[in-house]
Amino acid sequence: MPAASIFLFVSAAICAALAVYGHFQRRDAFTRYFIGLMAASGLYALAYGAEIASTSLEQMKLMLRIEYLGIPFLSITWLGMAWAYFDPKGLPKRYRLGLLLPCLATLVAFQTNDAHRLFYTSLDFVRLDDWSVAVAVKGPLYWLHIAYLNLCIAAGILLFIRAWRQSMRIYRSQALCVLLGSFFPWGFHLLYLAGLSPHGIDLSPFGLAASGVLFAIASFRHGIFDILPVARDLVFDGISEGVIVLNEQNQISDFNRAAASYIDGLSATSVGRRLEDLPAGRVIAAKLASQLTATQPSANPGIEVSMTGEGGERVFEVRLTPLLDRTGILQCKALLLLDVTEKRRLLEQLELQAHTDPLTGLLNRRQLEAEAGRMILLAGRTATPLSLAVVDLDKFKTINDTQGHHAGDKALRLVATLLVERLRNTDIVGRIGGDEFVVLLPGTAVAAATTLMDELRETFQAEGNLTLSIGVAELATDQPDLTALLDAADERLYEAKRGGRNRVVGH
């Protein structure tokens, strides 16, 4: 048996093993086309190995018929595999039938050639030393088949070249193995068509042997069935989370549409630039400096970064995730940006609602007590005075009863506005009841506080045509707590009301 036949049988065995291996991997379009390609290639190599070992024309014709059970489908399986490398759904349905019909036509044309002689017009048997060669005069259908086959192969190669050029480093070795695996049989096939093969021997099956080895490397070493850069446009660009891929030097390798919309200045020209070269990227790089400079970064829990762009200020949760190969070596880093602006606004609103009075926007009782506690401690440490005023809107019930609750709410908001606008920035104002307001006046003795509140009362009467009763008390050194201070101010408030309302009692 010729050594070439043994070589081709080994090649067929490799293709068969890869087809079986693929069968037990993922059940997706890429794997299905890969299995079909390996099956067609293996059948081609097996039959051609038997063809060159044949001892008669009849044996050779039989092997050729077997070869052409696989050869016509090399085109669609190769193109389908290349297509599925990008799109997990594989070839669109509207294309599949159109691409399959020429394959079926080739199959029928070859098997029925004796009836029409359009595939090859004659076939001769030539013996060269210990192997045989078929010398055929090709017909028009053969050249149509060859044109279609080479068109599909060329299209598939272009797709894999694109994959190799655009892929991140983690995919590049994988894509290169597949790409080189296509060049060997195609290159040998072109030599055969050009009449450059020795003795007219078809070198394509020998190229398939090299392809099988490279596909095996792509499968077992680079995990072609484990990681595929499929669906970049559908997945990578389709997710709402921004993704920026950085290489080991923190240069931008890739990014999706969401990231481009989040980061001002991020465009195609940004590829190859460092993250900190972008104004917004500089903010992120500063926050993640330790992670970016680490030789083996670990996934961080996420940090919040505020950035201002065309849409105003936005808040992002930023995570840096290292991407490692099977051996644990860093390949690249994925910078993930999640827009949490609305979430942050909602949390701020909830926090505000928990601390403020919904009608007036002033501090509610709980938050006022917290602020008062801090002021009392500060007053004690610094030996400075602290006064508290209780402000009550006179005849509030009458307003509600005669004019309605809308008028009552309006009056309360007017009191709140007056207190905020006319008091100092250091003073704290809150609402603790229906028509009761509390004012904390740090660094102010009771006499000064009484004068200040009396001026405010007069202003309110003039502007609002309403009156206020106010009680003022100063923090006692022997009872430095809020309860005692409130009780003292309340007593003076009741004294003001008993005195005829519309007055301030502070001492």
Any descriptors?
single chain, 507 residues, alpha+beta, Rhopdopsin 7-helix transmembrane proteins, Beta-Lactamase, Alpha-Beta Plaits, 3 domains, 5-stranded antiparallel sheet, 5-stranded mixed sheet, 19 helices, rod-shaped
Concise account of the structure shown:
This protein is an alpha+beta fold.
Describe this structure as you would to a colleague.
- There is one protein chain.
- A five-stranded antiparallel β-sheet has the order 4-3-7-6-5, with helices on both faces.
- The mean pLDDT is 81.
- The longest helix is centred in the first third of the chain and has 27 residues, at 140-166.
- Strand 9 and strand 10 form a beta hairpin.
- The protein has 507 residues and is an alpha+beta fold.
- It folds into three domains: 3-220, Up-down Bundle (Rhopdopsin 7-helix transmembrane proteins); 237-345, PAS domain (Beta-Lactamase); 356-505, Reverse transcriptase/Diguanylate cyclase domain (Alpha-Beta Plaits, 2-Layer Sandwich), CATH 3.30.70.
- It has 19 helices and twelve strands.
- Helix content is 55%, strand content 17%.
| CATH architectural grouping of the largest domain | Up-down Bundle
Tell me the helix content.
Answer: 55-70%
* Biggest sheet architecture: 5 strands, antiparallel
CATH superfamily of the largest domain: Rhodopsin 7-helix transmembrane proteins
Low-confidence stretches: none
Distance between the termini: 122 Å
Please work out how many helical segments DSSP would assign. Answer: 19
Biggest sheet, strands in spatial order? Answer: 4-3-7-6-5
CATH fold call of the largest domain: Rhopdopsin 7-helix transmembrane proteins
What is the residue-mean pLDDT, rounded to a whole number?
81
